[in-house]
Amino acid sequence: MALEHAILVSLAERAGTGYDLARRFDKSIGYFWTATHQQVYKVLARMEAAGWVTVTVLAQDGRPDKKRYDLTEAGRAELARWIGGPAEPELTRSELAVKVRGASYGDVRLVAAEVERHRDLHAERLDSYLANEKRDFPDPSRLRGAKLHQYLVLRGGISYERGAIEWCDEILESLRPRPKGKR
Amino acid sequence: MALEHAILVSLAERAGTGYDLARRFDKSIGYFWTATHQQVYKVLARMEAAGWVTVTVLAQDGRPDKKRYDLTEAGRAELARWIGGPAEPELTRSELAVKVRGASYGDVRLVAAEVERHRDLHAERLDSYLANEKRDFPDPSRLRGAKLHQYLVLRGGISYERGAIEWCDEILESLRPRPKGKR
DNA sequence: TTCCGCATGTAACCAGTTACATGATTAC
DNA sequence: GTAATCATGTAACTGGTTACATGCGGAA
């Protein structure tokens, strides 16, 4: 389980509310981890019980109170401990791959259309990642520390999307009707 | 949800027992989908209730009875229907990426060691995939139908592993102490 | 004699999703 | 007026994992 620890990383960078954390997952850390706000609230409660974070209630008028979460020493220690441990390589599940595999038992053209849609989705994401790269890391060779690590994760996202696009293209080339010459 | 449908694909190729299906997930389909035998038994029960498969009990002496599952017409129809529908692109969760991102809050050298271990794991898998490719698809340009689709999924596995290895290498290059020249 | 393969499952648990609920503020 | 943003959560459910249980045959 790693959501706890993804949150620890996020809080180590800076304190925030459950709402904040959920939004951060939509963005930067979100290349390789996501969580809904419901899930975040649940886990934060557990983390507080474990003594990894403290809560400060911040009254607001007009809108509901905020709860700012801060890492405790115990939280930092747990984070360091976890970082030093092994990470299980997770199995990549791909529904699209299952459809490709089974394409002969359905309509191959529909599968091809879906692959094309995925290719476009991946291309869109790639563009947005590349834009982030340009904006946030214009000179990567100088990076060090946390900023470098952030960059490396982004690079992972970029390389993943590129791979996905290439794969979709390969599928499309072999699934789509051959150029008329052969007919 | 797609385990049901992954099983339908597997059964469309050929009938089998729960045990067989679980093992097939370890192999061919397993590049992009896996399931334990417990999970398979559970889902098969559901699928039988839905009328997608029929069960034939095959008595054996010495060992427990087998249950061979066969697709029904309804099962085939459901498979065709599902194949024609959209596939949600799933979010790739990577614990390793979270560790890389948080490396500054722990021991960077341990993270690097773990990245190296992952690179080796991916390299091993790549080798085995490439061996499968050579053995099962010596002449890819002639493939058509189900065999082609199988090949394309394998190609996806190969490209995924290659991407993972490249990413690990990029991380290792920037995380590890610079060649002494610069010091 | 010990482990692996065959072959079935149950039970407890855990992580994550979806739906629902509340309610003010601000921008279009 | 309508939708989005801020901000919290509960409840029901689903999919998947882990641990446990049984028991024979054959290989090392």
Keywords, please?
homodimer; 183 residues; mainly alpha; two-stranded antiparallel sheet; 7 helices; 7% strand; elongated; DNA-binding
Structure write-up:
The structure is a homodimer of 183-residue chains. The model of chain A has no long low-confidence stretch (mean pLDDT 93). Chain A has a two-stranded antiparallel ribbon with strand order 1-2. Chain A starts with a helix and ends in an 8-residue tail after the last helix. In chain A, helix 2 (18-26) crosses helix 3 and helix 6 (108-136) packs antiparallel against helix 7 (145-175). Chain A contains 7 helices and 2 strands, in the order H-H-H-E-E-H-H-H-H. Chain A is mostly helical and 183 residues long. Chain A is elongated, with a radius of gyration of 21 Å. At the A-B interface, helix 1, helix 4, helix 5, helix 6 and helix 7 of A face helix 1, helix 4, helix 5, helix 6 and helix 7 of B. The structure holds a DNA duplex (28 and 28 nucleotides).
